[in-house]
Amino acid sequence: MQVLERSDELAEIAQSLQRSGNRVGLVPTMGFLHRGHLSLVERARTECDSVVVTIFVNPLQFGEGEDFDVYPRDVQGDLTKLEDAGVDFVFVPTVEQMYPEPVAAGVSGATATTVLVRGISELWEGASRPGHFEGVATVVAKLFALVGRCRAYFGDKDYQQLLLIRRMARDLLFPVEVVGCSTIREPDGLALSSRNVRLSGPERRAACVLSRALLDGARDVQSGETQPHSVVEKMQRIVLGEPLASLEYAAAVDAWTLEVPEKLVGDVRLIIAARVGSVRLIDNVGVIAPTTAEVSRIQQGTFGVCSVEDRELEPVEATVLVGVGQAGEQASGVAGVKSNHQVNRQER
Q1: Sheet containing 2-4: which strands, arranged edge to edge?
Q2: CA 31, CA 26: separation in Å to the nearest integer?
Q3: What are the residue numbers of the active site?
Q4: Of 43, 161, 169, 287, which is the most buried if we count CB atoms within 10 A?
């Protein structure tokens, strides 16, 4: 495994691999790797000839007062895990390599050139963390420019980010196939996140309230509930019942646009963000709302509804989303997105 620190080294190696006909897999990370990250590496390893992992805690995507300074880091531990996983190249740049002009976390206008994906970046996480997605799009665009033609792997847990990166890659004509991979969870349902290490024992137990709220909301959708506000109210009650959790938003959204539909039909994404103690966590789950005929059969007890757990754990093959429209204003704490499972179902 070769560790690279300079951007020109990465670009030269990527070009050499592509000239040799190698399929390159790119896994961008901020380090402090867990099983979720390693699942992306494993997927890339099985589908590509060479795998490049990047480790860079990007200051541009952290707002003022956010946790850039305390974001967990363990580069040496990460390198050991990646070597064991069979990674070929690891890019560990300095801030100066990625941003030749000085930048600092939480400083608006810190760099002259940024990438803004309008619409989709303005809802939910974008509204809660102004400038966050501009930072994400900028650093990922730089990585795509350095690596060139490749398959890039991102986790489904950061679902809005996944949609944004797909849109950016399409709009800027990057020769990159963006691949979404399923969320990896602990046995009790908590989605893996590098921030989980900062949870105390009681906070760690309380954090499961996010996945409980999502699964209860998804069961309501599967059972025929079509009103977004009803699903959201159920999710809110569950989170508000946990004293250590502070809800930021809960939403039932259309899977393509992140907008709140009048009724839940077809592909739905439930999303949630909350603080547990001082740690901010996000999660989401995809669900397919039954048709009117299916709802009638459910009410008559003649239609079997598969479990959300089964749906979320099945293998998925993500494809690039097209036609993600300009997202409108948030409404009633609810909006929409399209899951990997849902893309597959239409393709099949």
Answers
A1: 2-4, 89-91, 50-55, 24-29, 150-155, 176-181
A2: 14
A3: 37
A4: 287
